[in-house]
Amino acid sequence: MIIPLDTLPKETLSAIIENFVLREGTEYGSEDVALSDKIQQVQQQLKQGSALLVYSELHETVNIMPADQFIEGVEEEV
User: Fold this and answer.
1) d(CA 72, CA 41)
2) What would the DSSP string read from start to end of 7-67?
3) Do 54 and 71 touch, CB atoms closer than 8 A?
4) Where does residue 52 rank: exposed (0-12), middle (13-18), buried (19+ CB within 10 A)?
5) Helix (H, G, I), strand (E, B), or coil: what is residue 71?
6) What is the CATH number of the domain that holds 42?
7) Residue 75 pLDDT class (50, 70, 90 cuts)
8) In terms of Cα–Cα distance, which of 13, 19, 9 is closest to 47?
9) Total structural domains in the chain?
10) Nearest-CA neighbor of 18 among 44, 36, 32, 45?
11) What is the pTM of this model?
C-alpha cells in the first residue's frame, strides 16, 4: 500500500528517510556524499514520484522503493 506523503508528520517522514538512507548504504561512486545530501535526494525522489513510501501489511514495515519496482511487483501479483 502506498502511503501518501502528506498523511505523515514531517518529523516522521524525515526519520523514515534517514533510516532508509542509513540502512541502504547507497553507492555514490568515488565521492563522499553528505548524509544531508542523500536525505535531500530521497526527499526529492519521493516528491517527484520516482520513489514511493510503501507499507507492507505482510511484514508490517514501511519502506521506500523505486516507483517502477513497486509497479512491477503489483503487476506480478495480478
Assistant:
1) 23
2) GS-HHHHHHHHHHHHHHH----TTS---HHHHHHHHHHHHHHTSEEEEEETTTTEEEEEEH
3) no
4) buried
5) helix
6) 1.10.10.610
7) low
8) 13
9) 1
10) 36
11) 0.80
Antiparallel, parallel or unpaired: β 61-66 and 51-56:
antiparallel
Q: Determine the 3-state secondary structure of 73 from DSSP.
A: helix
Q: 57 with 1: CB under 8 angstroms?
A: yes
Residue range of the domain that includes 23? 5-77
Tens-place pLDDT, residues 4-63: 999 999 999 999 999 999 886 655 555 677 889 999 999 999 999 999 999 989 999 999
Asked if residue 64 lies in contact with residue 17, where contact means CB atoms within 8 angstroms, the answer is yes
b/e burial code for range 58-75 (CB count within 10 A of at least 16 → b): eeeebbbeebeebeeeee
